[in-house]
Write a structure and sequence with these properties.
mainly alpha; MetI-like fold; 12 helices; 73% helix; 0% strand; membrane; MetI-like; cell membrane; ABC transporter permease
């Protein structure tokens, strides 16, 4: 006699708490990491709209646009900001120019000591800033160089050079050499090949290195503090102001720099996506 009883329907496994945690653990850690990174930035933006009762802008009191209407209201703030900007621009221009030439030389030419040079490039990046700053201070004092904006620029060029060389070298290493060979097969001379093929391909790496250099120069405090003399940059102004109470204008400048950085990143991504099409 045949069994006509229908088979039992398959019941799907009910999701358990442990399975949900296992499936979403990476997302949770990602969100926590983003909160950890952006919470201080959000706090800077928030307190740029605060109207503190006294000089200390650490406790939320009242929403206000006073600081945004008068960003130079805090004495000496804009002077230090412009000092940081022009020092960053000069140091970036020198480091980017010299570093790009060095990267081409170390990537495209073989010479005695090339391996040692490649190792020494990383030395300023691995040296603690306290050591680099005190070493430069000793050098300047021994040579009788007066401390000021010039010594700050020299110091910033020193540590920015390594980052430029490494960034541009990485770009050169990722280039397809057949593109340059194809240009030469089409009767382009070395100068035409460089300006019409090589340089446009390396340009994104050079721009990235320049942006990184400016960022490093703008926010450097330790090395600058050793070699600045009476010159006051924006990070040094913030450090000094923190001893007697930060003005909301400091948060305004920080928020402005954040907006500029985000704008540059968005434009860069837009240009990259347009080129990828």
């Amino acid at each position: 006699m045949l069994d006509t009883t229908p088979p039992a329907a398959h019941k799907p496994n009910r999701p358990t708490v442990g399975r949900w945690i296992r499936d979403h653990l990476v997302v949770v850690f990602g969100i926590l990491a983003l909160l950890f990174m952006f919470a201080p930035i959000a706090n800077v933006v928030r307190f740029s709209f605060n109207k503190p009762e006294g000089k200390i802008n650490l406790i939320w009191n009242q929403f206000s646009l006073d600081a945004w209407k008068d960003p130079c209201g805090a004495s000496g703030l804009c002077d230090s900001l412009w000092t940081s900007i022009w020092i960053g621009v000069v140091a970036t221009a020198i480091a980017t120019g010299v570093g790009t030439l060095a990267a081409f030389g170390m990537s495209r030419h073989r010479f005695r000591g090339r391996g040692l040079a490649n190792v020494l490039v990383f030395l300023p990046m691995a040296t603690p800033e306290v050591v680099a700053g005190s070493s430069l201070l000793t050098l300047f004092l021994n040579l009788g160089v007066p401390l000021g904006a010039v010594t700050v620029v020299i110091a910033h060029v020193m540590f920015c050079l390594s980052f430029v060389i490494v960034t541009v070298k990485a770009r050169l290493a990722g280039m397809d050499p057949t593109l340059e060979q194809a240009a030469q097969d089409l009767y382009a001379d070395p100068t035409q090949t460089f300006w019409r093929v090589t340089f446009p391909l390396v340009l994104p790496g050079i721009v990235s290195a320049a942006m990184l250099s400016f960022s490093l120069s703008f926010d450097d405090f330790i090395i600058t503090n050793f070699n600045s003399g009476s010159t006051v940059t924006f990070p040094m102004y913030v450090w000094g102001a923190a001893q007697r109470g930060l003005a909301p204008q400091v948060n305004v400048v920080g928020t402005g720099m954040l907006v500029i950085a985000l704008t540059v990143v968005v434009i860069g991504r837009f240009v990259s996506s347009r080129r990828a099409r």
